Amino acid sequence: MTTLIVNIKELLQIRDATIKKVVGAKMKILPTIKNAYLLLKNDFIVDFGIMDNLPKINTNKTIDATGKIVLPSWCDSHTHIVYAGNRESEFVDRINGLSYEKIAKKGGGILNSAKKLQITSFDELYKQSTTRLEEVMALGTGAIEIKSGYGLTLEAEIKILRVIKKLKKNYPITIKATFLGAHAFPKKFKKNKKAYIDLICTKMLPKIAEDNLAEFIDVFCETGYFTVKQTEKIIIEAKKYGLIPKLHVNQFTSIGGIQLGVKHNALSLDHLEILPKDDLNALKNSEVMPVALPSCSYFLNIPYTPARQIIDSGLPLALASDYNPGSTPSGNMNFVVSTACIKMKITPEEAINAATINAAYAMNLAHSHGSITKGKKANLIITKAINSYAFLPYAFGSDLIDTVLIDGKII
Ligand code: NIG
Ligand code: FE
Questions:
Q1: Which protein residues have their CB within 5 A of the ion that is ligand 2?
Q2: Do 57 and 195 fall within a single domain?
Q3: Among 26, 190, 310, 322, which one has the highest count of C-beta atoms within 10 angstroms of its own C-beta?
Q4: What is Dmax (Cα atoms) for the chain?
């Protein structure tokens, strides 16, 4: 099956296959071709160029993109979309003055979601998750990372990871699974935290490895959740099974999670809303991808990750949604890109680089996703007719997507 897209007003994010991430001042550059064509064969991009050089070929399908912009799908490298029910009552509590931390201390927050998930059947959890996955695919996400972490028992964590496995099997979108058993301490372990860490290390990790249910290990390294020491113990154990660290750090406080992540070659360090100079410096001279989650800052009214400072220090940056029931009940990457420009003062070029190639890097997908490159997946967004790509973040909240293709097929 070949598909030809013609008369593309501007084709964004043209990259050589050797480019795995874009760093520092280079993030301001977004390579494009105006008046372009793009040729897809089955799942893959096979050719592109200017319309003047359009080769004479027979195709199964031609799409006319006059006035429209084409870009690689968004890559969302940080989500928690497998959860049960929602927490809108906590949202109302926050409007009425309770803080996120206070709600968590009262047994709300992650433990509230875990209670709901533990009594939800596999089939029901799968059904609720498909709704969210289909929603974000229609919004232009073409690759996604999904974490466990709302189970907090062996059975419930495995249930989540099996739901992720089934989503992978049944949907064309590329999915990466992360084990986040260390998301919060269950109530019954509040007085014996070591016992929960032992459960993670001696029961959960071996089972996950045996059934090949996750590629990454995540820990919520934060005051009131997992200390640096506890985080390190879990990472070291997980690495024995080949899991790669991607960590929640510096969301509310700086406790050394960044230094730990760098020491253990984390693929990405996510959140970073609180980023003292020493922590920023620790990210330098490492291969770690810093990941900002602006929708979380928006929803919780917490500081935005200092993206400008990160990029101006010569570091790369990725953007992700953090879609979850507590801090970010939205997986809309278009909103993430807009909010990054508006609130974190990064340019449209920087934001698009951060939500495509760098986000692909943050889930080990830069070889196959995140740019218009021959041989990469034909996962694409075709916008409605718009004046320029800066209109995408500018017109925040507008639906500017005309067509989404995943594996070369319109969804
Ligand atoms: O990434 N910070 C930790 N985990 C989620 C939120 C958890 C929740 O409130 O349910 C996050 O923001
Ligand atoms: Fe998160």
A1: 322
A2: no
A3: 322
A4: 71
Q: What is the pLDDT of residues 269-281, one digit of tens each?
A: 999 999 999 999 9
Q: Are 332 and 379 within one domain?
A: no
205 CB-near residues (< 8 Å, 6+ apart): 179, 237, 238, 241, 243
Are both 138 and 238 inside the same structural domain? Answer: yes
The phi, psi pair for 180, rounded to 5°, reads: -125, 50
Q: How far apart are CA 81 and CA 79, in angstroms?
A: 6
378 assigned to some structural domain: yes
Q: Ligand 1: does its nearest atom lie under 6 Å from the Cβ of 296?
A: yes
Same domain, 240 and 329: yes
- Indicate which residue's Cα is closest to atom 8 of ligand 1: 326
Q: For residue 129, what are the contacts with CB-CB under 8 A and spacing of at least 6?
A: 81, 82, 83, 163, 167
Contact 243 CB / ligand 1 (< 6 Å): no
The parent domain of residue 47 ranges over 2-72+371-410
Q: Quick one: which atom of ligand 1 is closest to the CA of 270?
A: 1
Total domains in the fold of the chain: 2
Q: Can you give the CATH number for the domain in which 60 is found?
A: 2.30.40.10
My answer on whether 343 and 385 are in the same domain is: no
Taking only the tens place, the pLDDT of each residue in 109-168 is 999 999 999 999 999 999 999 999 999 999 999 999 999 999 999 999 999 999 999 999
